[in-house]
Amino acid sequence: MIAKQKFFEEVPLSISRSKISTEVNKTGSWRFMRPVYDEKTAPCSVGCPAGEDIARIEMLASRKMFREAYETILKENPFPAVCGRVCFHPCENFCNRAAFDQPVAIPHIERFVGDTAIAAEYLVPRTPRVGSFANRKRVAVAGAGPAGLAAAYFLTRLGYVCDVFESENEPGGVLRWGIPAYRLPEDVLKNEINRIVSLGVTIYCKQPVNQDFLEQAKGRYDAVFMGCGYGRSLEMKIPGEAMAHDGLKFLHDTRKGQAACFHGTSAVIGGGNTAIDVARTLIRMGSKPILVYRRRRQDMPAFEHEVEMALKEGVRLKELAAPMRMKANMGDIVLMLQKMKPVESDTGGRAQVVPDGENTMSIKVEQVFTAIGAEPGRNWYVPPKKQDNILNLSHCAFLEDDLPMVFGGDLTNPIKSVTDAIASGKQAAMVLDTFFQRGRDAIEERLAACRVGNGDALSMEIYTEGERKNRNSHVVSFEEINTDYFSRADREIPPLLSPDESAASFSEIEGTFAEDSLEKESQRCFNCGICNDCDNCRLFCGEVAVSSDGGERRVNMDYCKGCGICVVECPRNAMTLEEEKI
Amino acid sequence: MQEIRFHGRGGQGTVVASVVLAKAFFKAGYHVQTFPVFGVERRGAPVEAYLRLDADKKILIRSNVYTPDHVVVQDIKLLQNVDVTKGLKPGGWILLNAPGIPEHPERFSEYRLAVVDAGKIAIGHKLGTRTQPIINTAMIGAFARIMEMPPMEAIAEAIEKEIPVKPRQNILAAKQAYEEVQMIENQG
Amino acid sequence: MREVLEGSHAVSEAVRLAKVQVMSAYPITPQTHIVEALSEFCEDGTMDARFICVESEHSAMAAVVGASTCGVRTFTATSSHGLALMHEMLHWASAARLPIVMAEVNRALGPGWNIWMDQTDSLAQRDTGWIQLYCENGQDVLDTTLQAFRLAEMVNLPVMVVLDAFFLSHTYEDIDVPDQKAVDRFLPPLSPRIQLSTQNPCAIGQMSPPAFYTENRHSIQAAMEQVQGRFENIQEEFEPVFGRKYAPLEAIECEDADVIMVMAGTAASTCREVISDLRSQGEKVGLLKLKMFRPFPTMLIRKILGDTQKVAVVDRNFSFGVSGIFAQEIKAALCNHDNHPPVFGYIAGLGGRDVTPDILKQVYHMTKTASFPKEDGVWIDLNN
């Protein structure tokens, strides 16, 4: 029956069908705009004093690429497990996710990566500069605190030989002696310091730096980094002060296991982090501490989170009270306090307080601790003022002399935090390297080129690899995120001891994320400005011009017609549409 | 050709009744055609369906039924607001579902009246609920009796095929109605 | 096997027997029963086919266009507003030369809202390049649907099988449903002339510039010109297997008729009865049943109607500002025929209004007694 069709002529069939593959139509000729893969800076990185590439770290963590995440942190900071615990995380204040639901728990992710690196014994990756710097210059580092260790770490990676001199019997500075164990366990610190030692840094303990040392150093070293910190407590200068214990020394002795055990009520004078640490340490010893502070709670320089934890654990707070004198009374101490009142301040910032007339009171305690601030142990630890050869920078000061010196850490930092100290050590390393290679006049310009986004943080990755390779200076704003691709999710909370449990021992209060929390939390990150291989650019391209070969994306310009859909559909602004250049 | 008009309410299975009858008549060798008067009615609203039967010829006419030979009224209360005798040929059957002979049977004097208590029969076979008995199969059985067609075997077969729920009880209801229907021929 | 079947299910059964591979549809009264049955066939494994659920008729046609372009047998069904929404994609299907078959249940367009029989929906799609075949009873529906696949695949044009709302779609009657073996003998598996392939990638439906467009349209017309012959040829294949055959136009008692009545759909069936009544009364009347409306069998129309005295066209449709659509087409077909008869147009049966034997007799008598049509369309049964 089908054969009958043959009597008919063939039915004409003409349709608009290409005779050959569409590849012949090179739509690239239509293009006047060009999409480029253009990684930008996430705002959290700008907020991080160490300038870590946080968006990339979270992206790698979310894909369980923990070694790569660790190596990315190590480009900017040798202390992920430490900073994941003790950093006051200004990064979170910049997080774009805050405008969507809640900021990403950045320090908890960093801590997970740091702890994973310790557990898995990841090594420090070799960088091209290590050992290759022909003229192996030597740098002496005074102080094995976070600034000094960071300086030694970055200088060593840049090819310098570093010796670190520490007055105490163990390295770590404030990390070892100032921060209580419930915030930073000793083995975590030791592991991260050992990693720096493993690069070839020599740490000489019980070797305080003095003037004689500096004289001798002139022949043996090409430069000195001064990172001795603020070791000497300030005095209140009130009658009976001799009866008070020095808070810093108390913390130090506690960590050495040499502190006496205190019971009964204690007064802790001050409102900074040291005062909080002293009070919380006392709680753990069985004492009942009262914080005495001359301003109000909201004026305290201590981190709010720490204050809140202290109060939850049972620390009491007496605000607007300034010590006048101390008197012994039947084995107790009577502390006379002047009541204070705030006055309006035109300059902003912390409120100024003045005595509230004759209004005074006294409290009876068994011991008093002072923690009203600290200063450098020696006057010459700080850079000389008003000297022509001083170059003051954001996190350090450079003194060009017979023996060039960089002063860093708390000695020069406006914000006295661990991560700012690390930033200072990193800046010092860049300063000295630039000085040795290009001279003093090149320093400022070179450093400016290494800024992360528009902030003060400097990136060693940009310094060594140049050209802002992976992150250009544009800071991604929330409006630039394509939020269609994200859904709301609660921030993950790490395991936490209850205030009762935490106040009973020096055990670490916060735990590290479990792996499922880490996965969920790292996936919350927008990964602002960086590519996470989501493949949208390739999937949306109407010309099938985007290819992905071994993770490397490429736009075939023979066919890209510059429509820009890949740029629009990039959820995280890792692409840019540029004018075609003539 | 004979034309039958069904009056019922939405939800009473009026269309199903006409289809089951059509299939039964087809089994008995008739040409059949049945279709509902389709509207947007819902449960309770008066509905109609038509059934054409022809023992000899293919049915060509495809318009509505205006002058039925017989009518089937599935609910006596329809008499209040529907003129079930409209166009009904004199001498045609009116098959009425009612508990007994309706008042004023003389109004149907031109026609032949048959009454069956299909509601009682349905409830007896647990078909539907007391307020909503499923009476269509009983009506089919009664209709088969007054027409003397189609045979009960054809009806049973059509019910098996068309009514998946309780087919056995439905067949029994049809058979009971077949026995119980009262035919009142000259009530004038 | 003969069985009592609803008109809608006659379509479903034909689609099942045609072994359609991909279907897509959006439900609309009175098309619903067709696709309900088909979706059940897909679900319970009666058919080895995919039923693609979509959010609109436009998408339904787009889905079968896509499937057909991939070289599989496709089917959809719609009605009224659904067909109107499909309009754009109807052009796509025909100009892409895809052998899609669609059942279209004639239903009025709103507002005012009306779900009943009216031909205006399908006739409004006459310029979309679809073959249109109208049906008068359930058997016609089943057979025409089967033949539609054969025809569509022969000429690479889509076919619309048109059936009246309710008078056909919801009417149960006795229909012969053939067995699968018989259908397989008649309808071979699709061997597509157009088929997207990853082995040989190409662009389909791309830009057709002025240098090509005219030739492209001419090619569609050239295929259309073969449809009538192919349809007649299909009957030669169909009749030996099934014992039935159909014609693009069926002339009943036309040879000696003074008045020939012209109509499509179920009204033609009723009119067969009317013709036979009138003939028994000595009236010289004939009936021309329109089955194929696109392509319009112009030469056949001239042959059947050209030399009669009067033509009376019954349109269950209307083109506002002109007249009934079948009447227009008949007039256009006759106007180049020498001494062609006058064409009387009657509008009846819109929006579900019944076309009864009495109305058809009235049309005949009005035509017989008038010498020449005074107006292009006379509205029958109009309540004032």
Automatic annotation (TrEMBL), chain A:
The keyword Iron-sulfur applies. InterPro entries: 4Fe4S_Fe-S-bd, 4Fe4S_Fe_S_CS, DPD_II, FAD/NAD-bd_sf, FAD/NAD-binding_dom, Helical_ferredxn. One of its GO terms (molecular function) is iron-sulfur cluster binding. Residues 551-580 form the 4Fe-4S ferredoxin-type domain. Keywords: Iron, Iron-sulfur, Metal-binding. The keyword Metal-binding applies. PROSITE patterns: 4FE4S_FER_1, 4FE4S_FER_2. This is FAD/NAD(P)-binding domain-containing protein. The lineage of its organism: Bacteria, Pseudomonadati, Thermodesulfobacteriota, Desulfobacteria, Desulfobacterales.
Automatic annotation (TrEMBL), chain C:
The lineage of its organism: Bacteria, Pseudomonadati, Thermodesulfobacteriota, Desulfobacteria, Desulfobacterales. InterPro entries: PFOR_II (IPR033412), Pyruvate:ferred/Flavod_OxRd (IPR050722), Pyrv_Fd/Flavodoxin_OxRdtase_N (IPR002880), THDP-binding (IPR029061), Transketo_C/PFOR_II (IPR009014). It comes from Desulfonema magnum. Residues 14-234 form the Pyruvate flavodoxin/ferredoxin oxidoreductase pyrimidine binding domain. Residues 257-358 form the Pyruvate:ferredoxin oxidoreductase core domain. GO terms for biological process: carboxylic acid metabolic process; response to oxidative stress. The keyword Oxidoreductase applies. PANTHER family: PYRUVATE-FLAVODOXIN OXIDOREDUCTASE-RELATED. Keywords: Oxidoreductase, Pyruvate. This is Pyruvate synthase, subunit alpha.
